[in-house]
Write a structure and sequence with these properties.
alpha/beta; 51% helix; elongated; 271 residues; 8-stranded mixed β-sheet; 11 helices
Amino acid sequence: MTSERAVALAIVGGGNMGEALLGGLLDSGWGAADDLAVVEVIDARRAELVSRFPGVHVVDRPPRCRSALIAVKPQDVESAVRAVVAEGATRLLSIAAGVTLATLERAAGDQNIAVVRAMPNTPALVRAGAAAISAGTNAGEDDLAWASSILSAVGTVVVVPESQLDAVTGLAGSGPAYVMLVAEALTEGGVLVGLPRSTARALVTQLLVGSARLLEQTGETPEVLRTNVTSPGGTTAAGLFALERHSVRAAFLDAVNSATQRSRELGAPRS
């Protein structure tokens, strides 16, 4: 890439999420490989990205760019923002956890820089993510649409005020771990009642996939779908009674609330 030509988007950070977004952008036709760059400082990781994404500019420092996706660790965000702005970026999308819009805008400096903050989750790695985005002071509808076009390449995107991003973290950001815990517990339940572990795991995996598709494709509420499989006095009613007796519903409410509060603590200014 010549120094005169600016790429359309520089992805700063070639970790799992950066790679997932890069792959999604290419597969969705968001841009040609030559329009994209990924910045990765680790030599071995850079070599992997070069092999996986022919034609993409894989570099160790930000190139000239019109926009940038910040996908580095929180402690590296401010320096990354300053670097891409120095290379011409006028739009920024940050997926760094806990780094506020105020911090991002302060690092960007220039009042003409549009900044959008996002909270994605790990299912983005398999193009089934759920992300929320929030607009900074100088970001308009066009900037939100731009940010959404990037994240929608790997899943669903919603727009929320920044004040709700901690709640998004507590629900969707941490949510995959809750679901995996349910998967673990259901698998153990299958083993408990006599199923081979491999059989239980296969059934649970398809159970979760199928249930998610029912929610997505039927448009029904979880309450309706639960009622549809619960016959009076039947096996499902007995199982649900056991879950309610052990306050499973309340435990999930508490999990989301606790994770949200922790997200607020981590994002609070340090004295």
